Amino acid sequence: MERVIEEALLTGKKLGASYVEARVIDREIEEISTKDGSVEGIKHSTSKGFGVRVICNGSWGFSSSFNVSDAEVKRVTEEAVEIAKASALTKIDDVKLRETDIYQDKVPQPVKIDPFSVSLEKKIDTLIELNKLMNKEGVIVRRANMHFSREWKTFASSEGAFLEMERIVSGAGLASIASNGKEIQMRSYPSSFGGDLQRKGFEWIEELKLQENAENTARESIALLNAKPCPSGKMDIILHPNQMVLQIHESCGHPTELDRVLGEEASYAGTSFLTPDKLGKFRYGSDIVNIVADATAPYALGGFAYDDEGVKARKVYLIKNGIFVGYLNSRETAQKLGLEPMGAMRADNWNRMPIIRMTSVNLEPGDKTLEELIQGVDYGILMSTNRSWSIDQMRLNFQFGTEIGWEIRNGKIQDMVKNPTYSGITYEFWRSCDGIGNENYYHIFGLPNCGKGEPPQVMEVSHGSSYARFRNVQVGVLR
Amino acid sequence: MNKDELEKILRKTIGVSKGETEAVVLGGRSYVTAFANNYIHRNVGENNYTLSIRVAFGKRVGSVTVNDFNEGAIEDAVKRAEEIAKSSSEIPDFVSFAKPEEVPERSFFLESTEQASPSLRAEYVKKIIDTAKEKGLNANGTFTTEEMALGVANSLGVMRISQLTTASLKSVIMSDTSSGYSLATSIDINDISVDSVIKESVSLALSGKNPLPIEPGKYEVILSPYAFSEFLSSLCYLTFNARAVEECSSFFLDNFGKKMFPEHVTIYDDGLSSETIPMPFDFEGVPKKRVYFIKNGVITDVVYDTLTAYKVGRESTGHSLPQPSDFSPYPMNVIMEGGSLARDEIISHVEKGLYVHRFWYTNPMDPRRAVITGMTRDGLFLIEGGKITKPVKNMRFTESAIDALANCVEVSKEKKINYEGTSITVPYVRIKDFMFTSATEF
Lengths: 479, 442
Description:
The structure holds 2 protein chains of 2 kinds. Chain A is an alpha+beta fold. Chain A contains 10 helices and 24 strands. In chain A, strands 1, 2, 3, 4, 5, 6, 7 and 8 form an 8-stranded mixed sheet that branches. Chain A starts with a helix and ends with a strand. By secondary structure, chain B is of the alpha+beta class. Chain B has 2 domains: 3-207, PmbA/TldD superfamily (PmbA/TldD fold, 2-Layer Sandwich); 217-439, no CATH class. Chain B contains 10 helices and 19 strands. Chain B has helices at residues 3-16, 73-87, 111-114, 118-134, 194-207, 225-238, 242-246, 306-311, 343-348, 401-406, and strands at 20-36, 39-57, 60-66, 138-154, 159-174, 179-186, 217-223, 267-269, 291-295, 298-299, 333-336, 352-356, 359-366, 371-376, 380-384, 387-391, 395-400, 408-420, 422-439. In chain B, the strands form 2 sheets. In chain B, strands 7, 8, 9, 10, 11, 12, 13, 14, 15, 16, 17, 18 and 19 form a 13-stranded mixed sheet that branches. In chain B, a hairpin with a 2-residue loop joins strand 9 and strand 10 (298-299). The chains are: A alpha+beta, B alpha+beta. Chains A and B meet through strand 2, strand 3, helix 2, helix 3 and strand 17 of A and strand 1, strand 2, strand 3, helix 2 and helix 4 of B.
């Protein structure tokens, strides 16, 4: 491993690169999915390779290969340099990296139970049992799944960084789909789209309390078929932490990525309304809204020891007392705005150049109990578990839907409602936040599928939140 | 890897396995030259191959994917797949891997594309950037070239290898208040007209400046092929596949054979059409069949892989994704038949309405009715008196793709290929009563 990296750094420098970095990643993934009481698929995959990123003639070049051999390292590094030289044909300014502390470190990840030491039979039995618990009349599809991954990453740069990091992830989730022949309704636990993941071992599966929640998940999917439709109009809403995850992700996480702010994602993901002139002054939310990017949060899926530029993980405020105060950045974008690198450059595997990604972007807990939040609503909806999401390319106009809702009348939870949706303009919505649940409800959910970049990258991020209440929000869709 | 090397890997994998076995090799070299703010900011290359193995003992199936082809690695991977299969419980619907079918070999590999160098890609991009700079605009986009190989073999006798090249040039040109989009994709880089891409994206950015506010509500719309392909893309996973029918989420369930759409609505999947980025067989090695989803307005069929097909006593239509998959089967070469009128003629039939160049971030809200929400992007214009008159600010739509097809009154003769891994080739369409539900600030 060290030899491959050394060869890349030496070759790059010899060919005239002013900066060279190399990453070698060795990753193993196990995915088990079950459906309707049987195994649907078991997939075990391994992927190993390396990527070399260089600055040559003042521009970036990157190349990568699955073939970890001396000859291929030389070819790939030469190609990265050739690509950088081609980039320089359109150069406006030389790439400059903000200086940062240089580290040599080795960071293993201790877990209580190595997920790859647990037998496949035990994992399958657990999932089949969950299927059985969801087997109720009216349920047409039952799903339960587990995901485990382990990787070793070695990173080195021509500035002297040398980092070795281990990453172990475990996760699971279940879902029940019910139908009456006319419509379908779905409930998921603990959140939708694959469940909840953390940087933990198999112990996390045991902590998820899947068995305790399987029957209720199925029951709610059936009950939704006969629930009344969610009303439309302006009203108060309370969002469950598992929906706040998506709200934070789309309307705070993405718009604070400094590469999109500077237009680097304009052709695909879009840009952002949080332009540099707003930094430190723009009222993003109400006074009680405090959002951090915290890669040091224990076990959080968006956490790590060092990012893919070798910057040490840290916690920074993006929104402080409602004011927009910080970006997710890289060494290059930090240099452009005169900021400190905060460590958000991440590549989804050895074959991708790092780009700015969310870490664990979390809304800090408030001081309310759930009862207090509900008591403060004359008429509104409590919504849980994301079902659909859409937001414009500047991250202003959003419309999100959840799997389930409950009507709140005169400060009390009343009937279940189906197909809830709500929409708004990001800063108007966050400014209407007047209550956040206390730390007893706070949980950091792992989101394994954040897509961004060209070529596309899928990143593991996370978001912590408690319940939150928003006033006078558009619920339902204009027809 | 060349064809002989790929075949050797496939044969070796099948040869060392003790069970019924399937081997899939997928990979190649791909390059993306990405530009933003009038310069190349991300420029990358990748060389990767994966070998996916499925081993079945009866109905117990194990799957392994590796990207290591060194001595002993294939043997280890097969052994791992066998162990997983033995430890697994049965997949009740599994019958077997695909049976062999005779099909002629066809090549979609062009050296012109395969040999595209970093400097050639940069020269194409520079031409876009230079034009943007000249007009005071901001150029963004990507130029992607790929050479990919897909090889599938199984112990029932399937052995197929296909090599494919693609070149895809995307341009998003922006002013302070507008943007314009263009995309061109072909297996031959020489078919990519950078001038056409520049013309389309630059003219939209120029004519879209200073958009006016507009009220949400129902409008008659002309959707460009870029915008309309988003709708069909949603229907691919919500409606047009056997899994969605099996899980009761497809609108087609209970509606097969019914005429639900106008006569001119005909939509099918055909991996070998000259109108698509081709794919001769699927990830189980089954040759692609033409499958009509809607024929002259009548709901006809959906696509199948072996698992969903054998379960209902049918043959696979050749639409498997890499297995095991929660999303398979899936149409990857969707085509809608065009009409006889030119784009401008169907625009001329709109007294008051909107021209939508592109949709963005579309997501389903109700799978059964295929209700989709999303934003307009990169060109929204008012049509008055049969002509595009002025730009308007972007809006959110919330509309059923089923209703939109039912309300599709005209289709153009011009079509475009929209390629992002899957290929969707559609005309401009005129749709009545299309619902926009909210506005945004730009």
